[in-house]
Amino acid sequence: MLILGIETSCDETSAALVEDGRRIVTSAVHSQAEIHKTFDGVVPEIASRNHLEKILPVLDEALAARPAGSVDAVAATSGPGLIGSLLVGLSAAKAAAYALDKPLIPVNHIAAHMYSPHLFYDIPFPYISLVASGGHTLLYRVHSHTDARLMGSTIDDAVGEAYDKVAKLLGLGYPGGPVIDRLAREGDATAIPAFRDMPKIFPDNPGDRYNFSYSGLKTAVAYRLRGLELTDRTVRDAAAAFQKAAVEMLVRKSLNALADCGWKRLVVSGGVAANSALRKECERLRSDGYEVYSAPAEYCGDNAAMVAGRAFADYQNGVRGGLETDAFSRLDFIRKGKRITRDG
Ligand code: KG4
Ligand code: ZN
Fold first, then answer.
1. CA dist., res. 106 & res. 101, Å (int)
2. Residue 79, ligand 1, Cβ within 6 A
3. Please, what sign has the CA dihedral across residues 57, 59, 61, 65?
4. What is the 3-state secondary structure (H, E, C) of 53-103?
5. What is the pTM of this model?
């Protein structure tokens, strides 16, 4: 089954063709990062307008490999995300599905991230899924593609959001993740005395064993930068100290979830899953006997291949959209212990 996937939830315009949820035929991604850099973050209105400009060229690029008539279904991210941006991709998908007379499959953005490693590996269930992105930091226990239950989440900022905010403090621009990652590798987390006592990770008390908190970490960096001259050296060292604490919390909370479920299988996804320190930690976990999966770095951030992949699984489970399918911006409908589906 060949699915055309479309992703426009934030600042990437992407279209992809994926066969049977496993074989990526084409994947076209246009990033708006350069446009939003000037503003140190994504400006929703500019994002929507740029999606409008790029959606057809990106679709043409993805469809160059196969005739449009060979597409069996069209999928698009319907939420959560920026509402104006989502509407561009979802409307394009509706138009394509209508014109081709093929089913439309609306896809949850979080579920698409969670699926991304499945594009590359046969991953048995159950497992713990860590989703670490610019908008979300979530831990699920996953029993099947239709049964993912939320265990914990950030109580304030998402980890990627913290990367972006700390990058701003360090004068590094947007997006912050990749540049902090690169500089942190050359830095020393203990070199600046003030950064030696970064706040202890969010406590493991019973209500928060699987929860994350990143806004305090960002503030701790802000306080420690006061009176400090920002040089190439201090920026690298501060980046290293922040990254160490940020990644430590992701790993610690994931290990809590794994231990409490008695499982050894972890699936990591979202833009932050591309982080080199986190990937190194995953490697360490593997040598400790855990099974850890993540997509190649270029498929961790927003892309339409994961949307088309997820749509294949959803389609097998009866998910269908229509011209009345609406976009939604928030994740509010997902509550602890509830299924990931919107009305679950
Ligand atoms: O999944 P994603 O593309 O979009 C959302 O759904 O939010 O994630 C984007 C986030 C941004 O905050 C970006 O700074 C972060 O992922 N990111 C990284 C890295 N690459 C991207 N964070 C840390 N290290 C990286 N290498
Ligand atoms: Zn995303």
1. 16
2. no
3. negative
4. HHHHHHHHHHHCCCCHHHCCEEEEEEECCCHHHHHHHHHHHHHHHHHHCCC
5. 0.95
CB burial of residue 152 (10 Å; 0-12, 13-18, 19+):
buried
Closest to 308 measured CA to CA, from 26, 13, 12: 26
Q: The dihedral of CA 82, 41, 253, 247: what is its sign?
A: positive
Contact 97, 25 (CB under 8 A): no
List, for residues 195-242, the tens digit of each pLDDT value: 998 887 677 888 899 999 999 999 999 999 999 999 999 999 999 999
**Which amino acid is present at 294?**
S
Task: Tell me the per-residue pLDDT of 98-128, one tens digit each, with 9 for 90 and over.
Answer: 999 999 999 999 999 999 999 999 999 999 9
The response to whether residue 275 sits with its C-beta less than 6 Å from ligand 1 reads yes
Q: CA-to-CA distance for 268 and 220, rounded, in angstroms?
A: 26
Q: Check pocket membership of 302 for ligand 1, CB cut-off 6 A.
A: yes
Q: Which residues, listed in sequence order, are joined to residue 108 by a DSSP beta bridge?
A: 79
Mean pLDDT computed over every residue of the chain: 94
**Distance of alpha carbon 68 from alpha carbon 310, whole angstroms:** 20
**Residue nearest atom 19 of ligand 1, based on CA coordinates:** 177
Ligand 1 neighbour 274 (Cβ under 6 A): yes
In residues, how long is the chain? 344
Q: How many A from CA of 246 to the centre of ligand 1? A: 13
Spatial separation of the C-alpha atoms in residues 124 and 150, rounded to whole Å: 19
